[in-house]
C-alpha cells in the first residue's frame, strides 16, 4: 500500500506496462489491476470502458467488474499536440483512440494470433452487427467494428437452432449465465443468424495433439459444409450442451413459430418441447415448469376480431404476447393441452360477461320505455289541467300566461 493514493483523488495519468494498467496521480496509484483481468475494452463518447473478468469471484462476493476512464476533449487535443513529432501516425487517431488501442494490444483482447479457431464475418442480430469469433482455451471473443466482448464457455447455458419464417435463414440462440454488456445494455442471449445455403471451410490452428491436451478430443482438424452446422457442432462439442430445435409444433402454414408482438417490438414465438422461446427483441425464454397459468385473451367469436393475446404468468413475472393470428388458436390450445399447461377458460368467462351485458341491455331498454311513457304523460292535456303553479316557481306569471295561450290554440 506504500504507492497507493489515499486522498480520494479520481484523476491522473493512465500507465500501461506489460502486466498492469494503472491510473496514477503524483507518483501514487489511484487504481491498479492486471491486464489479464481485462476481457473487453470499448470507447463510448469520451469514455474508455473496461470490462473485467469475474471468474475468480466466489458466490456472494463483491468484485470489481467494470472501470471507466473519462478523457476530456481538451486533454485529448493537448496530448495530441505534445506528440506532434509522430504527426503522420496521429493524423487520424485521437489520444483516446491511442489509449484504447494500446489497452487492446497489451491485454491481447483483439489479437487472434494465439486463438485455436477463427470464424470471420458471423452475423449477429442480438447484439446487432458482424463479428469475428475467436475460440480460445477458456472463452470466445467477438470482435466487431465498434464493440468487442468475451464470454467464457462456462457461462453458456443453452443453445437453440430456430428456422426463421422466411425459410432462408436460421437463428442460433446462445443463452448466457453472465450477460455481456454494450454500454448500459446487458444481453443474456446472443442471437446469430445464418443463411441455410451458406457453406464454408474452417481449419484448426492447433494440431491433433494440442487439441487432445485441451480436452477437445471431439473437435476435428477440418470442417466443411453449412456454416450453421459447423458453428453448432463446435459449440456443442466444447460445452457439452445439446442444441435444441423445434420438433412437433406446427402452425397453420407449416412453420414452427407464431408471429406476435411484445410491445413495442414484433417477433416470433417458438413453442418447444419443454419451453417457449421468443425472439428477437427482447429474447424471452420460459420453461414449462415455471409457468403457473396461461390466459388466452380476446378470443370471442366476432368477425372483426382477427387476433388474440397470450398472457403467460410465471412464478416471478408475467409476459404478454399480443396480435397472434386467431387461426392459430386451435393449434396452440392443443399444444398447451398436450404439455399439460393450465390454460384459463376465457371463452366461458366471456360468455358469462356477454349474458350479463344482454340482461343489462334489456333492463336499460325497459327503463327507457318507462321513461318515454312518463314524458308523454307529462306532455298530455290532462297534466296541463291538473298543473298547479307553485308560489316559489320562477317567473310564475309569465309561465301561466304561456299555458293559457297554448290551450287557446289547441281549442281552435
TrEMBL record:
Keyword Zinc-finger: no
Keyword annotations from UniProtKB, A to Z: Chromosome, DNA damage, DNA repair, DNA replication, Nucleus, Transcription, Transcription regulation
Top-level division of the source organism's lineage: Eukaryota
Name used for this protein in its record: Histone chaperone RTT106/FACT complex subunit SPT16-like middle domain-containing protein
SMART domains xref list: Rtt106
Keyword Ribosomal protein: no
Naturally occurring in which organism (per UniProt): Paramecium sonneborni
Molecular function terms from GO: histone binding; nucleosome binding
Domain Histone chaperone RTT106/FACT complex subunit SPT16-like middle span(s) in chain numbering: 255-346
Regions of compositional bias (Acidic residues) in chain numbering: 378-389
Amino acid at each position: 500500500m506504500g504507492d497507493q493514493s489515499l486522498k480520494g483523488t479520481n484523476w491522473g495519468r493512465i500507465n500501461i506496462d506489460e502486466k498492469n494498467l494503472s491510473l496514477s496521480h503524483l507518483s501514487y496509484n489511484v487504481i491498479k489491476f492486471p491486464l489479464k483481468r481485462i476481457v473487453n475494452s470499448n470507447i463510448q463518447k469520451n469514455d474508455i470502458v473496461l470490462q473485467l473478468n469475474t471468474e475468480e469471484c466466489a458466490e456472494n462476493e463483491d468484485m470489481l467488474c467494470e472501470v471507466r476512464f473519462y478523457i476530456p476533449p481538451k486533454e485529448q487535443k493537448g496530448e495530441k499536440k505534445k506528440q506532434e513529432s509522430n504527426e503522420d501516425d496521429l493524423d487520424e487517431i485521437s489520444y483516446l483512440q491511442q489509449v484504447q488501442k494500446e489497452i487492446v494490444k497489451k491485454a491481447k483482447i483483439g489479437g487472434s494470433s494465439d486463438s485455436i479457431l477463427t470464424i470471420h464475418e458471423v452475423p449477429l442480430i442480438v447484439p446487432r452487427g458482424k463479428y469475428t469469433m475467436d475460440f480460445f482455451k477458456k472463452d470466445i471473443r467477438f470482435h466487431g467494428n465498434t464493440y468487442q466482448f468475451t464470454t467464457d464457455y462456462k457461462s453458456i447455458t443453452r443453445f437453440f437452432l430456430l428456422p426463421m419464417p422466411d425459410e432462408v435463414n436460421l437463428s442460433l440462440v446462445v443463452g448466457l449465465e453472465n450477460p455481456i454488456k454494450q454500454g448500459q445494455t446487458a444481453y443474456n442471449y446472443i442471437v446469430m443468424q445464418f443463411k441455410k445455403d451458406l457453406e464454408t471451410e474452417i481449419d484448426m490452428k492447433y494440431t491433433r495433439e494440442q487439441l487432445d491436451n485441451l480436452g477437445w478430443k471431439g473437435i476435428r482438424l477440418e470442417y466443411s459444409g453449412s456454416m450453421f452446422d459447423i458453428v453448432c457442432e463446435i459449440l456443442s462439442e466444447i460445452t457439452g450442451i445439446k442444441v435444441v430445435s423445434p420438433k412437433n409444433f406446427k402452425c397453420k402454414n407449416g412453420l414452427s413459430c407464431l408471429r406476435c408482438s411484445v410491445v413495442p417490438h414484433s417477433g416470433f414465438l417458438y413453442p418447444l418441447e419443454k419451453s417457449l422461446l421468443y425472439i428477437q427483441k427482447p429474447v424471452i425464454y420460459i420453461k414449462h415448469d415455471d409457468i403457473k397459468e396461461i390466459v388466452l385473451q380476446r378470443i370471442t367469436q366476432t368477425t372483426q376480431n382477427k387476433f388474440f393475446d397470450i398472457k403467460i404468468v410465471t412464478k416471478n413475472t408475467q409476459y404478454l404476447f399480443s396480435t397472434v393470428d386467431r387461426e392459430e388458436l386451435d393449434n396452440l390450445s392443443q399444444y398447451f393441452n398436450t404439455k399439460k399447461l393450465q390454460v384459463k377458460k376465457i371463452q366461458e368467462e366471456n360468455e358469462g360477461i356477454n349474458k350479463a351485458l344482454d340482461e343489462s341491455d334489456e333492463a336499460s331498454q325497459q327503463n327507457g320505455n318507462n321513461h318515454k311513457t312518463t314524458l308523454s304523460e307529462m306532455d298530455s292535456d290532462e297534466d296541463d289541467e291538473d298543473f298547479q303553479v307553485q308560489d316559489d316557481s320562477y317567473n310564475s306569471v309569465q309561465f301561466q300566461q304561456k299555458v293559457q295561450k297554448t290551450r287557446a290554440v289547441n281549442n281552435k
